[in-house]
């Protein structure tokens, strides 16, 4: 079969590789009909995630048709059309029982490797390094899926691939990011980053009752889409964000602030005020993380900072004084995708949200290396690219 292979930092290619096979009796093989590139894939391509090996198949946002099931799979049948949540849940461990599926204790077959490198073991994730289990990803024609009965989610009749593909990750991720803001009637939510995750956070904040959403980015086409989703916008290359957010909220600051940027943050967003903090605080000089720092500085006293953006390793220059003395609440995490599938599918069926609005590019899997470049550099107004493994 054809698959998109990680070859090294900034090097991916499409290769012919052996078809996947069932390994455990709880596995199923899915013939992939649609797959997407995520901002998290860029962290792998940028080399921020340790334990990638040349030859690894990328991709954790994918869906398709079940073509083979193991002997212990009961609920899922050959022929089912399914989406596959990116974190793998065993369904039985302490975390999965609480619905915290992205913290599953049993889906990572390499816990020792993860503990040695990170000090803890994350759940298994498709196409996301050996620390998260070394599972082959879904930017391929076929993929082996684990704990099929617990994870594969049958798509209701009448919904297209485009409508449901983002249930695998970014729609639930935006929704959990917004839910983590503890939105109350009348609230203003600020969202740093208008990529796919930021855009779904904006849509979800309104679903959850936010009165206003203020979205921050530098790419006009992303800011345009944020406005179409109902947000007010700030271009951080043109406007001093901290001052603008204060002005727009009567001097108080937003009730909650979302960092939908993560590792590859660009610019500062809160230059002026952070420089002031620096003068009175001894901090080491590093450039990152801009967006997380900006979120802490911009949030009103007593507010909530929600971080769906992915980080790794250590970071410096966190304004801990502001964080503690403003009495902020912090929520983070990989998304517990499974928890949100029924309610977000209902929103799609009712037409409350149209997930397809973020799709700007459709390309055959063969052109995935080009698609990675477009998405990484935001060229050609690329917001989200969907790949067809069979075109
Ligand atoms: P993306 O790269 O398309 O979007 C990031 C956006 O942030 C870009 O539009 C960029 O211009 C903007 N940006 C950069 N620096 C900024 C700054 N200082 N202020 C404001 N905006 C800034 O990526 P995406 O697909 O939207 O993903 C965003 C983040 O969410 C990534 O870190 C990704 O790994 C993470 N993510 C997390 C989960 C989860 O489970 N928590 C799931 C999916 C993605
Ligand atoms: Zn993703």
UniProtKB/TrEMBL annotation:
The protein's Enzyme Commission number: 1.1.1.284
Annotated keywords: Metal-binding, Oxidoreductase, Zinc
Cofactor needs: Zn(2+)
Membrane-spanning residues: none
InterPro entries associated with the record: ADH-like_C, ADH-like_N, ADH_Zn_CS, GroES-like_sf, NAD(P)-bd_dom_sf
Ranges where the Alcohol dehydrogenase-like N-terminal domain occurs: 25-156
Residue ranges of domain Alcohol dehydrogenase-like C-terminal in the record: 196-264
Single GO molecular function: zinc ion binding
Classification via SUPFAM superfamilies: GroES-like (SSF50129), NAD(P)-binding Rossmann-fold domains (SSF51735)
CDD domains: FDH_like_1
Family: Belongs to the zinc-containing alcohol dehydrogenase family.
Protein name: S-(Hydroxymethyl)glutathione dehydrogenase
Species the sequence originates in: Deinococcus maricopensis (strain DSM 21211 / LMG 22137 / NRRL B-23946 / LB-34)
């Amino acid at each position: 079969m054809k698959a998109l292979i990680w070859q090294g930092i900034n090097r991916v290619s499409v290769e012919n590789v052996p078809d996947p096979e069932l390994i455990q009796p709880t596995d199923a093989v899915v013939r992939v009909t649609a797959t997407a590139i995520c901002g998290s894939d860029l962290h792998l391509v940028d080399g921020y995630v340790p334990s990638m090996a040349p030859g690894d198949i990328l991709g954790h946002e994918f869906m398709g048709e079940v073509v083979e099931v193991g002997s212990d799979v009961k609920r899922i049948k050959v022929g089912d059309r399914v989406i596959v949540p990116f974190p793998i849940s065993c369904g039985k461990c302490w975390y999965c029982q609480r619905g915290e599926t992205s913290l599953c204790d049993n889906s990572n077959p390499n816990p020792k490797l993860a503990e040695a490198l990170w000090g803890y073991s994350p759940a298994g994730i498709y196409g996301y390094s050996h620390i998260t289990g070394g599972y082959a990803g879904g930017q391929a024609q076929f993929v082996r899926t684990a704990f099929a009965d617990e994870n594969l989610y049958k798509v209701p009749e009448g919904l297209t691939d485009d409508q449901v593909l983002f249930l695998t990750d970014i729609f639930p991720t935006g929704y959990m990011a917004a839910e983590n803001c503890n939105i109350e009637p009348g609230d203003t939510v600020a969202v740093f980053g208008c990529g796919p995750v930021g855009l779904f956070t904006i849509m979800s904040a309104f679903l959850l009752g936010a009165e206003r959403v203020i979205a921050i980015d530098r790419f006009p086409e992303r800011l345009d889409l944020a406005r179409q989703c109902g947000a007010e916008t700030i271009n951080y290359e043109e406007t001093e964000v901290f001052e603008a957010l204060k002005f727009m909220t009567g001097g108080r600051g937003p009730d909650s602030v979302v960092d939908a940027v993560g590792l590859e943050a660009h610019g500062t967003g809160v230059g002026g005020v952070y420089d002031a903090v620096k003068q009175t605080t001894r901090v080491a000089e590093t450039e990152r993380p801009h967006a997380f720092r900006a979120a802490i500085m911009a949030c009103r006293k007593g507010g909530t900072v929600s971080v769906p953006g992915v980080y790794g390793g250590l970071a410096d220059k966190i304004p801990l004084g502001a964080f503690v003395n403003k009495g902020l609440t912090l929520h983070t995490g990989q998304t517990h995708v499974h928890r949100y599938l029924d309610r977000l599918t209902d929103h799609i069926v009712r037409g409350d949200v149209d997930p397809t609005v973020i799709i700007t590019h459709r390309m055959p899997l063969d052109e995935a290396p080009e698609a990675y470049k477009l998405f990484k550099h935001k060229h050609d107004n690329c917001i989200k690219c969907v790949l067809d493994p069979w075109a």
